Amino acid sequence: ISLLGRDALLRRRLMEGQRPDRPWLARRLAALSETAVGGGFDLIDPNAPLPQPQALLLLPHLLERGIVAEPGHRGDLRSLRVRASLSAQEADAIVQVMERRHAAKMRRFAALVRYMEAFACRRDALADYFSAPRVADRPGVCCDHCHPDAFARAPRPSPRPARFAPRPEPASGSIAAPAAAPLAPPGAGEIAVAALDCEILDRPTGREGRTTRLLVWKGDGAVALHDALGVAPVVAMAAPGPWRWQAAERLLTWGTGEGRLCLRIHGVRWCQRVAGSAAAEAAAASECDRAPAREAAGPGGGDSALREALRQWRREKARERGVPAYVICWDRHLDAIARERPQSQEALGRIAGLPAPTRQAYGHELLALVAAAAGEGVAKA
């Protein structure tokens, strides 16, 4: 995955942690509505010994509406003075405003990522975003896509680990593919995994634009192409046939006829050659599933079979929605479910940090997986 992709994933995880938690907000706002005017109020949940991030997000809304007074010092959330009563309608309006603001923040972040990853004119992208007319008279140097030669950088040492091939630095704005084949075919029992800056050509669905794709090329000849995050396979060919590299057109082709896969390679972000099929799974899985599988008695504890079933369920949901797996839930949430084996929605709600939208949308499926695992355990016994 590219450096930009890793930074975007980290930032998105941080923003997902700021998503308003409706159950927690409802409990604290209900407690605030029962507090008399002039009395003191502890915005932190008394059952949680550490400050809640949700409380830091809620405080500005209470101050805007004059519900509570400004705290004595910044960050003091435990000794707030109530200035006005809070009605149920106003409490619900506060939660809705918080959710709308978070959704708008996520939309702006997604637009920023699209702008950074686009290969079109940057001036046109900014004009479209702000609903402004596109500029007809462009300057001599428009942007790094329209005039890449003006933005060429001098070569520099690559910070990547030695096990990765160094990323080529552009000599004229775009990454030029070498005359030799950018990828050597893997040997028997080997797998080549590479992130390619490429275009997909000659497919039944038509030509697809230039973007970053993850290529998994096995020693038995099988080829799989995934999107930039490795969530959904774009192409999977068990026996594509012979491969060919055309240096002049920068075309890498597998197979012949209508079923062939043809890529125009603009550059190789990184590549790695490893042995064993586990590496292909690690490269093609989402960011949450890149670590090796834990042993049955590993740090997470619990039933390893149930934990693997939960991960497989999460991968399928991520593919259906076209999102990274961590959007559904995190590894630690699945480990906690496998360890605690909740039998009801109330028990599932006690899983620390499990997102409320996940619990509401998929709670019955998670409980069914736990019940199925328990039934298999009884049958084996």
Keywords:
alpha+beta, seven-stranded antiparallel sheet, two-stranded antiparallel ribbon, 38% helix, 11 helices
Give me the secondary-structure topology:
Elements (H helix, E strand, L loop, with lengths): L2 H14 L5 H12 L6 E2 L11 H12 L15 E2 L6 H30 L4 H8 L60 E12 L6 E11 L4 E4 L6 E5 L5 E4 L4 E4 L6 E15 L2 H7 L19 H18 L3 H4 L2 H10 L4 H5 L6 H25 L1
Antiparallel strand pairs: 1-2, 3-4, 3-9, 4-5, 5-6, 7-8, 8-9
Report on this structure:
The chain is of the alpha+beta class and 381 residues long. It contains 11 helices and 9 strands. The strands form 2 sheets. It has a 7-stranded antiparallel sheet with strand order 6-5-4-3-9-8-7, with helices on one face. A hairpin with a 6-residue loop joins strand 3 and strand 4. The radius of gyration is 26 Å and the shape is flat.
Please give the oligomerization state of what you see.
Answer: single chain
Computed over alpha carbons, the radius of gyration is 26 Å
Pick out the low-confidence regions.
160-178, 277-301
The residue fraction in helices comes out at 25-40%
Mean pLDDT: 74
Q: Classify the secondary structure makeup into a structural class.
A: alpha+beta
Approximate shape: flat
- Strands across the major sheet, in which order? 6-5-4-3-9-8-7
Secondary-structure element pattern, one letter each: HHEHEHHEEEEEEEHHHHHH
With helices defined by DSSP (H or I, 4 residues minimum), what is the helix count? 11
Distance between the termini: 44 Å
Strand content: 15-25%
Query: Which sheet architecture does the biggest sheet show?
Result: 7 strands, antiparallel
Q: What's the β-strand tally?
A: 9
